[in-house]
Design goal:
Helix content: 25-40%
Bound molecules: pyridoxal-5'-phosphate
Number of helices: 13
Strand order of the largest sheet: 2-10-9-8-7-3-6
Number of domains: 2
Order of helices and strands: HHEHHEHEHEEEEHEEHEEEHHHEEHEEEH
Shape: globular
């Protein structure tokens, strides 16, 4: 008789977004005339840029002609895309990442969830608190998290690294030594960035203790400040301790198209086994490659027109972020993030909890955000707003909040 992987039963329900939907539905049913503005979503709203659409069309046409038809993509991804990534995202920044150290995938969610498979089941993981939930939940599924404490909303075997105003929302080196450290900068949900010096401390720490860093840089395109690294490989020694995850979702609007990649330098080893070879094995066995047409679309992101167009989109969202930051500051809120990321992290006023503030904002301003407690215990009393709405809605939401 089969048995299930009962680690899945340990997972608490994904309460956050279902609870938000339930509350918003209940409110709009009771108040049908009210215009609700949603600044809670982490999804982009602008359409895909014209240069990318053109490339997609061209690739679709190629698939319809015998001479240019393509079947299975190479395991690691097409060279045209891996070369464009190596040149533009790494070599142009002085980082010696080679095309064959890049693994093309269908997004950073899958990669950030799957990467733990190549590590031993008894490795200890450390995560930021608050955190993008995928890192924790996939380690729970793999049996690496221990027991859940429903009161504290933490797992016994996970090392939590609080990210609070006191440490500029970037974690301190942990007291217990982890084997795997998940870092995400610019951060979802706090919108915080890490300086190069602080990231270098993490790289040095990982090399000293023999830990691996899984660095999620899905929001790299939003970096605006000089001293914020665009990739962990800007830090010395990162090639021997860090895996980097990237996505085309937030820089180029591929949330529905699906494309991302993982970088594993060949020097990253456990004894004489390279993680690169394990991930290549895993990729070759379990994955048949991102679609050709999507990889061509990814290549177009790096073209001259593509770059100009996607930068314009990022600027559009960041104009929203600026409007939210300035407006809410003016209204007396304590806000952070929003400078190198499309997320604004604000302190719930008057001692309210995250959920109390959610209800207050929904009822009094008809604005929807995301309660910080949904991302971890240190998110309690915080609230996330995103810059992915339209400019008009963003302005209206902020004006409503100012009037509260
Ligand atoms: C930190 C972080 N990593 C990864 C992802 C997922 O990226 P993708 O759409 O490439 O799967 C998200 C999406 O919101 C994210 O916030």
């Amino acid at each position: 008789m089969f048995k299930i992987n009962d680690n899945y039963l340990k997972l608490p329900g994904s309460y956050l977004f279902s609870m938000i939907a339930k509350k918003v539905n209940a409110y709009s049913q009771a108040n049908p005339g009210k215009k609700i503005i949603r600044l809670g979503i982490g999804d982009v709203t602008l359409p895909i840029a014209p240069a990318i659409i053109e490339s997609l069309h061209g690739a679709v046409d190629e698939m319809g002609r015998a001479e240019t038809f393509r079947g299975y993509a190479p395991d690691l991804g097409y060279e045209f895309l891996r070369n464009a990534i190596a040149e533009n995202d790494y070599k142009a920044r002085g980082c010696g990442i080679e095309a064959d150290e890049i693994f093309i995938s269908d997004g950073a969610k899958c990669d950030s969830g799957n990467i733990q498979e190549i590590f031993s089941a008894d490795n200890r993981i450390a995560v930021c608190d608050p955190v993008y939930p995928v890192y924790v939940d996939t380690n729970v599924m793999a049996g690496r998290a221990g027991a859940y404490d429903a009161q504290k909303e933490t797992w016994s075997d996970i090392i939590y690294m609080p990210c609070l105003a006191e440490n500029d929302f970037a974690p301190e080196l942990p007291k217990e030594t982890p084997d795997i450290i998940y870092l995400c900068f610019p951060n979802n949900p706090t919108g915080a960035a890490v300086t190069k010096d602080r990231l270098q401390e993490w790289v040095d720490y990982a090399n000293r203790t023999g830990a691996a860093i899984i660095y999620d840089a899905a929001y790299e395109a939003y970096i605006s400040q000089e001293n914020v690294p665009h990739t962990i490989y800007e830090c010395e020694g990162a090639r021997t301790c860090a895996i980097e995850l990237r996505s085309f979702s937030k820089n180029a609007g591929f949330t529905g198209v699906r494309l991302g990649f993982t970088v594993i330098p060949k020097e990253l080893k456990c004894g004489d086994v390279s993680l690169h070879s394990l991930w290549a094995r895993r990729h070759g066995t379990k994955y048949n490659g991102a679609p050709y047409i999507v990889q061509r679309a990814g290549e177009a992101v790096y073209s001259k027109e593509g770059q100009a167009q996607v930068r314009e989109q990022v600027a559009y969202y960041m104009k929203n972020a600026k409007y939210i930051m300035e407006g809410l500051r003016e209204a007396g809120y304590t806000v952070s993030g929003g400078v190198n990321a499309p997320y604004i992290w604000l302190k719930a006023p008057d001692g309210m909890t995250s959920w109390e503030f959610f209800d207050f904002l929904l009822e009094k301003a008809n604005v929807v955000g995301t309660p910080g407690s949904g991302f971890g215990p240190s998110g309690e009393t915080y609230f996330r707003l995103t810059a992915f709405g339209s400019y008009e809605n963003t302005v209206e939401a902020v004006e409503r909040m100012k009037r509260l």
